[in-house]
Structure formats: structure tokens, C-alpha cells
Amino acid sequence: ASTGDPLVEFRGHSNFVFSLNFNPQANLLVSGSFDETVKLWDVRSGDCVSTLPAHSDPVTGVDFNRDGTCIVSGSHDGLIRIWDTATGECLKTIYAE
Known about the structure:
The structure is a single chain. By secondary structure, this protein is an all-beta fold. It contains no helices and 8 strands.
């Protein structure tokens, strides 16, 4: 790290990343992209753990809940989705009015 070289690179999105956050345990990173997906990353290896086909427009916000068991994503498609971190299952979709 003292050389200025990256320790880990996270590659996988096909468009700009707009939002990212660490889980409370700091071992996972969630990212939301203009490629309309949400990706979950292993912080140490940089590997993509899962890709969620989250939205039909760019994902503009992602975060974990307090204990890291759920991910929330928001998008220009007017939807907010809540995901199970372990399974990637969409638990709830909230429609903006």
C-alpha cells in the first residue's frame, strides 16, 4: 500500500458505479451501477459473490441494514428493493408514487 498500488480491484460492472457501502462486519461491499445491477463483493479477495438483476434503470443507492442481513437498493425506475444478503432473494419491492 505504501507504493500507491491498489490492494484489491473490484471488476465486474459494465457501467459506472454510482453507490457502494460496506456491511457492518466490513467483510462485504455492495455496489449499485448504471448497468442496472447490484453486486456483492468479498472485500479481501475482490471477488464478486453475487449479482442481483435488481432494476430496469440505473441503481442510484445501495446499503446494508444495521446487522447486514439485508441490502436495500434504489433506482431511477422508481423502485426500492430489499434483498436477503445470504440468498440474494428479493424480499420486498416498494413502489414510489
